[in-house]
Amino acid sequence: MGRHDLFDPVLAALSDNSARTAPVIISISGPTGIGKTASAIRIAHLARDSFPDGQFYTWLGGTSQPTSSADALRALLRATGVMAAMTPEQPRDCASMLRERLADRRALLVLDDAADPDQVEQFLPGTGGCAVLITSRPVLWALSGAWHLRLPPLAVADTCELLERIAGSRRLHRDGAEALRLAEHCGGYPLAARIAAARLVNQPALPVSWLTERLADDRRRLDTLTIPGASMRSGLAASYHALAPAAQRALRRIASLASSELTASELIGLIDEDAEHAVEDLYSASLLESAGLSEAGELRYRLPGLVATYARERTDHDDR
Q1: Is this prediction's pTM over 0.85?
Q2: What's the burial of 296, exposed, middle or buried (CB within 10 Å: 0-12/13-18/19+)?
């Protein structure tokens, strides 16, 4: 569903392992709820024939719940066949053993929700028969030799398809205009669409407009996009709290004063301190989207709708 054109170059790189001397490293970044994990697992599934010696997954916990490197490395070692009693105590020794275990294999590692490049480095194999798929909220620019894939929002048509898969096409087709509005309010985030669809499933007697009215209200939007076990607000909060204070203030200011696409210089004009770094930090954290070039050839940016909603909440809380 959507994004196949993004995956094709990645799959081509993963399958071409005839003359590689170093592992292929693919870094998939994007905001919370944009579908990074699902995309990585989908790519791994499609590339399974290129890695006959196995695919190994580990969750790194991001910035909010970082997993102990030693625990993650030991889990990977056990997955490759090392008995628990034989795994070293020190992370460095675990990393060395993992590289030795993978040296003669054609295997794929999936490192999900990395916090930064330093966290990832110790997991990287040393030979060309292996490859690594990494997901992260921020772009891991400093990760040497990596391909960087930023996931864009889903198209509205693809969001409609996802809603139909979960909530049922008959119900959504009954009022196509409301279904379209619902998809637009999800902002291209698969997580938002899944939460919205789950709420429809939980309220089968109510019309789709019941949900779109709540999502149209900026004060209720993030409350509406919350169900047990899944919340757009909590994911956005993790990205927000990982920012430096200056970038947090910049995000709040942009959300409170700007309602459309702005050039880099216009954004910098809104921010009081260290403006250029703040804009770069917000873009790298996937909290600003690229909106192409202006007529003068200057980069334009925009805040994703749900990011702007969360930032205005923070403005009410932090700048009271």
Answers
A1: yes
A2: exposed
